[in-house]
Inverse folding.
């Protein structure tokens, strides 16, 4: 528990230091984060799921340079292009902020300071939840406690998780991270001891994973990795389907969660199914796999080298369980193909390939296996992790100060500013 308190304190302190002071808090709920969050004031304050309040709020709080239109016109109605799942998980924090704000002299309009601070705390909370389940999953892979600690530290401080849990708060990725990790853990528990409780939890969590970002449905195939063999996979499917009443209840739970979005579309446009992203979409014939992984613009392994180092653990995983190794490699290959096929493969203003964050469990379980099985070289591996954490933190610092451009980074700019931070001190 102490490690989670430490991580939470560091993340909240970071966010408070960067975002909460002066008028900086007005820059927190911008761009995509504003779109994800705006469902809450729309539903609870304005009663307007076509977001007619957007212009007034933007004029009141948002600097002109970060103003962003998150709505698209569909069927002559304005629709939030982003999905509602993130807002669903933010709801308790929003309601708490609303109660606090109404007890003060700040305007209870859904966008004053306390609302943004509670969204920040929400991001930290769900990220910690995701880490909690990651620890439990690592333990199931027989990773020792010291190795687990280093995996958690590597993920928190050595990847873009640090950015989206503490700096650019309100994005969907930490919420997906929490739900995917919890889903994977309860699948393991269901395989060990099938019960209604675990099946219902899995149905709810899978529904939330889809509701947050529908492309996350691909994680269904990744779940095979958490089962020890093909025989156990077949056994789990049998157990899921053998109790008809439990299966029916699970389907109802899943549909109840996923149906929230179509119901909102019905209220907004009169149609249950719309495509809110309009001209954006997938180009499966032209995936940008190399750019997605290695480019100066947003390469996942370039800006998150700890993820690449983690994959060396596949060697030890292969020696122990070929089924899990091949299912993991197969899933990661499919995942990278899908994510790199998006029309904006660099995913706008972001640090590293932000869409990989929610799938971090698939990348960092091998790191735990590496540290746990190669104990004779643990000090060397820990030294590598520490160096890569420092490297990542320097790049995050440069990203915050625009030496690493949020969207249009180039090779020339990268090497011109490589690890240079002295001018800021």
């Amino acid at each position: 528990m102490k490690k989670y308190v430490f991580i939470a304190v560091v993340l909240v302190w970071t966010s408070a230091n960067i975002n909460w002071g002066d008028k900086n808090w007005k820059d927190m709920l911008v761009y995509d984060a504003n779109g994800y969050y705006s469902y809450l004031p729309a539903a609870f304050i304005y009663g307007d799921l076509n977001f007619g309040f957007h212009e007034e709020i933007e004029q009141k709080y948002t600097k002109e340079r970060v103003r962003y239109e998150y709505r698209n016109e569909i069927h002559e109605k304005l629709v939030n292009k982003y999905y509602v799942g993130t807002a669903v998980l933010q709801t308790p924090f929003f309601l708490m902020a609303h109660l606090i704000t109404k007890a003060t002299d700040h305007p209870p309009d859904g966008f004053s300071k306390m609302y943004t601070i509670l969204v920040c705390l929400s991001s930290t909370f769900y990220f910690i939840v995701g880490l909690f389940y990651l620890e439990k999953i690592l333990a199931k892979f027989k990773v020792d406690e010291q190795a687990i600690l280093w995996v958690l530290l590597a993920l928190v401080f050595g990847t873009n998780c640090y950015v989206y849990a503490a700096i650019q708060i309100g994005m969907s990725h930490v919420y997906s991270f929490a739900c995917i990790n919890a889903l994977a853990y309860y699948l393991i528990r269901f395989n060990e001891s099938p019960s209604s409780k675990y099946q219902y939890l899995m149905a709810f969590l899978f529904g939330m994973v889809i509701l947050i970002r529908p492309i996350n449905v691909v994680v269904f195939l990744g779940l095979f990795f958490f089962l020890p063999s093909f025989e156990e996979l077949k056994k789990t499917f049998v157990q899921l389907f053998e109790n008809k009443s439990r299966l029916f209840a699970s389907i109802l739970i899943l549909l109840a969660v996923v149906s929230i979005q179509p119901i909102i579309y019905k209220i907004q446009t009169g149609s249950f199914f719309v495509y809110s992203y309009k001209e954006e979409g997938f180009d499966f014939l032209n995936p940008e796999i190399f750019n997605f992984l290695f480019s100066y613009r947003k390469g996942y392994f370039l800006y998150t080298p700890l993820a690449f180092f983690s994959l060396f653990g596949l060697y030890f995983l292969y020696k122990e369980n070929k089924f899990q190794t091949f299912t993991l490699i197969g899933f990661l290959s499919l995942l990278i193909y899908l994510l790199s096929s998006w029309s904006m493969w660099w995913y706008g203003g972001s640090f590293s390939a932000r869409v990989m964050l929610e799938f971090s469990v698939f990348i960092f379980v091998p790191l735990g296996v590496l540290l746990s099985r190669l104990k004779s070289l643990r000090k060397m591996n820990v030294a590598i992790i520490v160096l890569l954490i420092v490297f990542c933190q320097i790049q995050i610092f440069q990203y915050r100060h625009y030496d690493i451009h949020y969207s249009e980074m180039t090779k020339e700019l990268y090497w011109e500013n490589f690890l240079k931070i002295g001018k800021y001190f």
About this structure: Strands lie at 71-74, 77-80. The two ends are 35 Å apart (CA to CA). The longest helix spans residues 113-140.
